[in-house]
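Risk register update: the risk of archive-format incompatibility is retired. Evidence:
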Amino acid sequence: MNVLTKFTPVAAALLLSLGTMTGAQAEITSDNLSVSGFIDMSYLSIDVDGAGSTHDSGIDQVELNFGYDFGNKLTATVDVEYQNAAEGVDVEQAFISYAISDNLSIKAGRFLSYSGWETEEPTGLFQYSGTGYAQYFYGYYQQGVSALYSGDKFAVAVSVVNDLAGPQSTDTEHPGIETMVAFMPTENFTVKGFYSVDGDTKMINTWAAYSADALTLAAEYNSSEDTAFAGSEADGFLLMANYAFESFGMTVRYHDYEVEDAVGASFEDASGITFSPSFSVNDNLLMVFEYRMDEINDVDVNYLAVEALITF
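Archived output:
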């Protein structure tokens, strides 16, 4: 199987500069190499009741995704990102995948957890912001080995990783385990459940989504132990609806979560409702607008955002 290559001027220039700097002698053919990515920029206003407001704008993230198909069922993926001056350029993902059969594949390296309805990247979100509770209920970028079996109406996956949320971790003495079971009874309906454990840390993430024509509905429930700190317990949920028509879309989301300490006292209690219209200018540029009202530990926080997301 050959991977379709889409060389944009930005990607081509990067590849040319990499080849010049390294003096690489290996032949890279366009039939086997894929390059994609995005540029994410935004304006964000945050108004905290009783504490004033802040206004920020600029580049949120730039990412280039490289995929190479070696043939013989072996592929490699490398994602390079830039977020800000403090973090600079970082290798987000780097892993190899081997297809044992049409249904079973194994990957090894640094990769993103399968868990969670809301994706880590802006290209997978229906609105501008994530709920903010992913740190308590989702896995993150991980280093390890993962196996995925996919059937027509179900899928299972098991990942053995150094740390459920530690992309830099190299300690394999006490690995974390992430398991997934997914059911797709129809082409419109998907249900996924995740159970992850790493020492005393335990996470349960379940979500269901229905998508037909212009409508997408989703619901998610989460619970966890020891994700905020030793002895903590957390639970949370979200409900989301998105309707897209022609070049326009509208997302409404409600989320709620609470984190308690070892004696049951509330450490973080938050809920919020989000309204996010969007407009697709063309195949490459998406404008996303968001108004969000949160209550965090009994404090009202309002957000107003405008995002320009360019994909290639």
